[in-house]
């Protein structure tokens, strides 16, 4: 008998009809002889509706109360799902994150899972019940306050529960059939991957592939939980995320896919004095505003002036705060200007094989040049090449790279509407 | 510094606008130097909407999951209220029934409060915060499951928290100005009472006055919590429920008010063998179906047959089950027929003074006779007379009694739409 953890996003449980369809799938998994733990997001638009109510009563709602409010969304979907399963003749019990033992930090709205103490849900399973757990939420270790996990929190909940209960697999049901070599909405002949290693999936997620969130993949890798990404609207096998690039045979297809990201902005600090410690000062200023930066480039100093430019990218939503923080420290650091550019896109090529194939970078740059895409910044890791270009050229760049590395297929991808949280 | 517990029903927090208005009242109470605990119901139609969703996924939702679902209603209203208060510059924190220490029996959907362990909300108050607590819900003592309290549960939560925190007063905000001598929709010149004793309020509630539920008044009486029933739409003083009829001066106005009830049905079991233990058998049959009965009348036996009729009333919703249970036991008990009548109404006169005024019953019957109301059953307590009549004559009966005992005023009552749970 296997233990299966399944996670259903908001669009999979977006209506009473869809909840009943999901219930059938869950009961079938149980009847096939498995123990089943289900993690569920809030129904379709519930979160947006609750946020709208919050805005009506308060311009800046306290984070603690916002978490209390938003967690009612999963409470609704999980109890309805348990009812639907019960009406099919199987027993199901729903548990909040707190009841399921999801222990988090106390950072409301962006808490991290510290520990999972699943005794209560294990007891329920040993009594034959299907367990339904609210995704996206937990209880803080110190203050016993209700917390939410932030973006991708439900996926992370599922992987964390799978790790804590030693599940055989964590199935993430979503609105696509699996992980693709590129976004099928941009590249119509993108190919679904049957398998992908944790490291490659991490790079894909970090570079903008939305099918799984970074934290969820990090968690799965740390606890070695196989993750099966698949569609809740079909019965097809999806993509299995497992294993390490270190264990791949060298002959394995060398390039995994192309990811893209429109959510970043570029900041350039010009004419910075080129002596040790100045770059550190700049990034300390940004870090003190609790903002994460992504790519960093420092050009060679112009000998005459003894000054250089430092460029970095970060999430667009954080851009204005970063600019303001830097402007405040202009006197202390002594630079000329802060330039802010929101009209950029990032395209990345990911593949375990590129470690041992030095020609990849050349092919990469040639493909973009042929497509007329101008490269603004380049950054690489052992299994990834990323460049920043104009956002208007991003789709062309994705298609050019996908073609150049021959990642396509003849089958057409299936794309559904909507997305979970 | 006083400690005030306030309870707001669903119509008082039915929209973002109303929540903000309630927030202002709460902040004013706090600024006047009081510690404040607020108990809140779900917003307006939330409960009905959730029940509708439940029906869409399951014909008979399990009670445990229904409680999980419905408790999200108060979670939404309480967090929104806390946000609204915070945006006015005061600190507020919301707590679920479970977090606030409301310990109940495990009867889902109709749990009873066993104990309140308010340490967490007392800590919050000692830190200067206004405490918002979800009404209508708690956590079961044995199994730590989320429970709901059933009808009037939020009022009971408020009184229980007031008792546990030794509050100076429990204010129940509702859609009427207080407790009236009769329903102002039937008797336009009904008078608002300034005070009423626990016993009289118990009788009023038991006889159909909807302003406070029976369980809430029982709880207040047991723990001697003064309850102030008032409107959330005005600043007028309402009705104070406190004290015992035993402590009333004999000269005090002898009649309190007229209550009526359309929710009962009448069952008559005919030609029952008139020997000891038969009535007990009949009521045991009803009790085994977990149905509560209200009034009971047994006519004098007809000497010739040695048989008698037994009549009782109970809630209309329980009628069909009671009839079915009795029909099943016909052979064992040996009666002739079970007659079922839904078209009855109950009118009751309540007043501490009637203990020492023997003429009340005569005046009561004369008033009904003059109004042409035929009395079907009479039942009395020390401070109450109730009769069952035709439901079509109920309003006339209420008005006749209200006039006969001169309970009216010249001021017109204010009646608002909507009601909480």
TrEMBL record, chains A, B:
UniProt keyword list: Amino-acid biosynthesis, ATP-binding, Diaminopimelate biosynthesis, Kinase, Lysine biosynthesis, Nucleotide-binding, Transferase
Protein EC: 2.7.2.4
Domain of life: Bacteria
Reactions that this protein is recorded to catalyse: L-aspartate + ATP = 4-phospho-L-aspartate + ADP
Domain ACT positions: 267-352
InterPro entries the UniProt entry points to: AceGlu_kinase-like_sf, ACT-like_dom_sf, ACT_Aspartokinase, ACT_dom, AKii-LysC-BS, Asp/Glu/Uridylate_kinase, Asp_kin_monofn, Asp_kinase
SUPFAM superfamilies on file: ACT-like (SSF55021), Carbamate kinase-like (SSF53633)
Pathway in which the depicted protein is active: Amino-acid biosynthesis; L-threonine biosynthesis; L-threonine from L-aspartate: step 1/5; Amino-acid biosynthesis; L-methionine biosynthesis via de novo pathway; L-homoserine from L-aspartate: step 1/3; Amino-acid biosynthesis; L-lysine biosynthesis via DAP pathway; (S)-tetrahydrodipicolinate from L-aspartate: step 1/4
Enzyme class label: transferase
Function: Catalyzes the phosphorylation of the beta-carboxyl group of aspartic acid with ATP to yield 4-phospho-L-aspartate, which is involved in the branched biosynthetic pathway leading to the biosynthesis of amino acids lysine, threonine, isoleucine and methionine.
Family: Belongs to the aspartokinase family.
Name of the protein described by the UniProt record: Aspartokinase
Organism (species): Lentzea pudingi
């Amino acid at each position: 008998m296997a233990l299966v953890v399944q996670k259903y996003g908001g669009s999979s449980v977006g209506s009473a009809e869809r909840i009943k369809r999901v219930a059938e799938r869950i009961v079938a998994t149980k009847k096939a002889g498995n123990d089943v733990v289900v993690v569920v997001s809030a129904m379709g638009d519930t979160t947006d509706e609750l946020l709208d109510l919050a805005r009506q009563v308060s311009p800046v709602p306290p984070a603690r109360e916002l978490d209390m409010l938003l967690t009612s969304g999963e409470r609704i979907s999980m109890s309805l799902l348990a009812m639907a399963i019960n009406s099919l003749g199987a027993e199901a019990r729903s548990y909040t994150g707190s009841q399921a033992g999801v222990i988090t930090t106390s950072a409301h709205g962006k808490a991290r899972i510290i520990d999972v103490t699943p005794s209560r849900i294990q007891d329920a399973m040993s009594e034959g019940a299907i367990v339904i757990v609210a995704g996206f939420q937990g209880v803080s270790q110190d203050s016993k306050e209700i917390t939410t996990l932030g973006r991708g929190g439900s996926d992370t909940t599922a992987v964390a529960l799978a790790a804590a209960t030693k599940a055989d697999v964590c199935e993430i049901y979503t609105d696509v059939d699996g992980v693709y070599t590129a976004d099928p909405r941009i590249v119509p002949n993108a190919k679904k991957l049957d398998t992908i290693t944790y490291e490659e999936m991490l790079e894909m997620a970090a570079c903008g592939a939305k099918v799984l969130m970074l934290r969820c993949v990090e968690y799965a890798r740390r606890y070695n939980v196989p993750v099966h990404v698949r569609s809740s609207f079909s019965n097809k096998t999806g993509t299995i995320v497992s294993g390490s690039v270190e264990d791949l045979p060298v002959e394995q297809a060398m390039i995994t896919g192309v990811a893209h990201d429109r959510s970043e902005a570029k900041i350039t600090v010009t004419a910075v004095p080129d002596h040790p410690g100045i770059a550190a000062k700049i990034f300390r200023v940004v870090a003190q505003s609790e903002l994460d930066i992504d790519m960093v480039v420092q050009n060679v100093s112009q000998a005459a002036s003894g000054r250089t430019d430092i460029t970095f990218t970060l999430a667009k939503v954080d851009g204005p705060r970063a600019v303001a923080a830097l402007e405040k420290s202009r006197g202390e650091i002594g630079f000329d200007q802060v330039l802010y550019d929101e009209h950029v896109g990032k395209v990345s090529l990911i593949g375990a094989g590129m470690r041992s194939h030095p020609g990849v970078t050349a092919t990469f740059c040639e493909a973009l040049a042929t497509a007329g895409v101008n490269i603004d910044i380049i950054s690489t890791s052992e299994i990834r090449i990323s460049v920043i270009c104009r956002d208007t050229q991003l789709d062309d760049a994705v298609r050019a790279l996908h073609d150049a590395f021959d990642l396509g297929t003849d089958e057409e991808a299936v794309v559904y509407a909507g997305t979970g949280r």
